[in-house]
Each structure stands twice: as C-alpha cells, then as structure tokens.
Write a structure and sequence with these properties.
about 270 residues, signal, mainly beta, Porin_dom_sf, Porin, 14-stranded antiparallel beta barrel
C-alpha cells in the first residue's frame, strides 16, 4: 500500500472552504440537501499548497433541529453522492463517492479517487477504490468490513528509451464506529479501522461534541512497515465549529511521531449546506 497516496487521499476525503456569500444566510432551522466544500492544505517540505473543492448531494433532507451538525448525515442515515477535485504541484486528483443507507441496519459506501502526475520523463496515474459494508448493531454502534483496490500505471521516457508498467493490489479492512451523540448534540464519536496488507495500518479517532456546533477530535494511526523500513506513527488534532446549521469552519494538524521525515500536514477548511 502507498502510505503517502493514502494520506493524501484521506486528507482529500475531508475537503472544505466556502465563498463569501455564505455569510448572508439566516439562523433558522434548515433542512438541506446540498453541501459545497473547499480546502487549503499545507504539507511540510513542499513549496506548493493543495487546493480542492467537493460537492455532496444528499438524497434526503438533512435536518438541523437536533443532533450534531457535522455528523447529522450519519446520525439521520441520509444517503449521498459526492464528487471532488484537488490540485497540488501539477498533480490532479479527481474523487467520486457514494454512501447508501439501505435501511436502519445496512450501509454501503464506495469511494474512488484518480490522480495523475505529469513529469518531465513520463507520466504516472493512480486509482484507489474503497468499498465498505456496514452493519448497525444498534443506533449507536456500527461494525463493518471492506476492500481497498489500488492500481498504479507508469509511462517513462528518458529521451532514449521508453517503457510502461502497471501494478495493483487489493487490501481487506475492518472498521467500527460508536457514537453517544443524541438529539442534544453532545457526546462522543469514536472510530477505528484496520487495513491488512504488506503495510498494515491501524487507525482510530475520538471526537467530542461540546455542543451541536463545536467539536474537537484526536486521531492516531500506526503503520507496520516491511522489514528495512521504519514503522510510521501519526497523531492529529482537529477543531470543527459551525457558525450556524449551514456554515462551518475547521482546522486540523497532523504530525509523524518519532520520525525524522518532514511530513506535518496543516489544513484550513469550511463547508456550506443549502
């Protein structure tokens, strides 16, 4: 598994900044079916920033009169379709996703990302497809399993010789989610996931909602690298605040622990539902 591509993709699965017109909205309870997101991300050691945008279409109304605004689509079991684009130093990344709640018990989530690198001596492109099936043991607790498919294509031309190569791999995963957030909008949202591969990845997060609008998250991931490579330990924090039921701003910071690699990631995000 390409851990750098995975980190970039995970950063992109959170895209968000919005136009100035959002400040004209009212504070009345809103029932929304659309969400626009944009983001700016700074990777330590890179001169360029990542900029991206994403659109989500909810297949039913997301109500803002109860629960926690950030995770109300999950709490209310609202299915959705999404698409996004991001760019970083000549790298174009396209993203499509869907989440379907078949009833109060089952969830099917499919996320796909395609990135293209244009370089002086050739081109590279990567495709990632995640498929997850979730089962709700209760209103609070979800468990599930899935697969991650990754494919890489290389076309190299050094002016004298040219060749192409491709490789792919499929990795199984298991995940769980437990939330104590109720109609009052306060409580915990806990997640954990394990990806089995040549490079095993164990990750988890804990987010606490102080109110329907304000939450803080801590996250941690451990990558068990192959022999000859250092294991990777990553920790992160995130703050999410909703000005009202439609407009939110958030910031996050992620760093590698016990590593000499410059790989800190900081992001500033926002979203608007309408």
């Amino acid at each position: 598994m390409n851990t750098n591509t995975n980190k970039l993709k995970t950063t992109l699965t959170s895209l968000s900044i919005i136009t100035a017109s959002v400040f004209a909205m009212t504070a009345a309870h809103a029932a929304t079916q659309n969400e626009v997101q944009v983001t700016a991300v700074d990777f330590e050691g890179l001169n360029d920033k990542l900029y991206g945008a994403r659109y989500v279409r909810y297949l039913d109304e997301v109500s803002g009169n109860s629960g926690a605004y950030l995770i109300n689509p999950y709490l209310q079991r609202v299915s959705s379709l999404s698409g996004g684009y991001a760019t970083l130093d000549g790298i174009d990344v396209f993203n499509l996703g869907s989440t379907f709640y078949l009833d109060d018990t089952w969830m099917l989530a499919i996320e796909g990302a395609h990135s293209k690198f244009d370089e002086d001596f050739g081109d590279e492109d990567y495709t990632n497809i995640d498929v997850k099936v979730g089962f709700n043991l209760s209103r609070q607790w979800q468990i599930g399993a899935g697969l991650i498919y990754q494919r890489a294509n290389y076309e190299i031309n050094d002016g004298t010789n040219s060749y192409s190569e491709s490789e792919n791999e499929t990795s199984p995963l298991v995940f769980t989610r437990y939330t104590t957030v109720g109609n009052g909008g306060t409580g915990w949202d806990l997640t954990a996931q394990y990806i089995a591969d040549d490079v095993d990845v164990l990750s988890g997060s804990a987010r606490y909602f102080f109110s329907p609008a304000l939450s803080v998250q801590g996250s941690y991931s451990y990558t068990n690298a192959p022999d000859g490579f250092d294991n990777l330990k990553t920790a992160g924090v995130a703050l999410d605040y909703w000005v009202n039921e439609q407009f939110s701003v958030s910031a996050s910071y992620e760093t590698d622990i016990d590593s000499d690699i410059e790989s800190d990631v900081a992001s500033l995000t926002a979203s608007y539902r309408f």
